[in-house]
């Protein structure tokens, strides 16, 4: 008993080590283990700042409201902004409705490379986009006119090379977040997305 009290007394003045904020806790928990590892890779850290919560609910509610109103220029809804502890670099994920005229349909886009996922997928060293179509009981009329939803990833880390591993990491993060969004919206067949990202590059 005396020894136990002595040990407690000796360690009583030590401040507890703060809990590390991990990648998997970013973005309202929408990141799969693979996506969390990809986030660590592109931001080159395993320690993150606390991120605001509620982004999944806010962004999906915003998408549903925009679809109901038939917005001609629908706004963008941020899901999250993930950043390393004590660093200025960050990855932001946001969602909005899109029109089919935005699709590249095979036309080249500067610094973005096409992949065979969703309606269309593009990825590069600073950004990525994933386009899907969603029919959901939550979105009245989407059985006839599916909601067109695009997820966008933007990175402020300017030193990332334009390589296949970086492009695939960005798509892995974006796919995981988009899958969470379409499931929250109740999209049939997960809006055509597989459980794992399809990282097959298309001819350019």
Description:
The protein is of the alpha+beta class and 204 residues long. Helices cover 28% and strands 18% of the residues. It contains four helices and six strands. Strand 4 (120-123) and strand 5 (127-134) form a beta hairpin. The termini are far apart.
The number of helical elements comes to 4
Unreliable spans: 1-12
- Roughly what percent helix? 25-40%
Distance between the termini: 73 Å
Sheet-strand content, in percent, reads: 15-25%
Radius of gyration computed on alpha carbons: 20 Å
| SSE string | HHHEEEEEEH
Question: Helix- and strand-based class?
Answer: alpha+beta
The global form is globular
What is the strand arrangement across the widest sheet?
A: 1-2-6-5-4-3
Mean pLDDT: 89
Kindly state the number of beta strands: 6
Main sheet specs = 6 strands, antiparallel
Structural descriptors:
about 30% helix; about 200 residues; six-stranded antiparallel β-sheet; 4 helices; alpha+beta
